[in-house]
Design brief:
Length: 137
């Protein structure tokens, strides 16, 4: 088997063995790290990893890290958690710098989706003399 040299988390560089099992071909694993200001800003960093057949874990450099923003948002007087992607970030500093813009873009998309659902609900017609009370869209 060809020896693959790569960064290994918590282990020495070893010969990469193919994982086996029912999920080995479809599962994509990530190392999860979380950063916060201790108040309302949370950033989760999902670093892609590979799992060898021997159980060794290494960073998967073929996939990009994913940055996820989390905060609390007031929706019409009801405060709740809100999660969104922070696109085009390569590190935590960039994700922090893009947090506000990514939040605003995600909120705009959510507002648009809610408005579209509201319009769809308003456009439905209830047929009054139909015994089954069918709704026609």
């Amino acid at each position: 088997m060809e020896e693959i040299k790569e960064e290994v988390i918590g282990a020495e560089t070893t010969e990469q063995e193919e994982p086996s099992g029912p999920l080995s071909e479809t599962i994509q694993l990530f190392k999860h790290e979380s950063f916060t200001d201790g108040n309302l800003v949370y950033i989760d960093v999902m670093t892609p990893i590979k799992l060898s057949g021997t159980g060794k874990v290494s960073i998967d450099k073929e996939r990009k890290k994913t940055f996820i923003g989390k905060t609390q948002v007031d929706f019409s007087g009801k405060v709740g958690p809100y999660t969104f992607m922070i696109e085009d970030s390569n590190n935590v500093k960039e994700a922090i710098d893009k947090f506000d813009d990514a939040l605003e873009a995600a909120l705009d998309r959510t507002r648009e989706q809610v408005e579209n659902m509201r319009k769809e609900q308003e456009s439905k017609v209830i047929v009054p003399n139909d015994n089954k009370g069918k709704i026609i869209t």
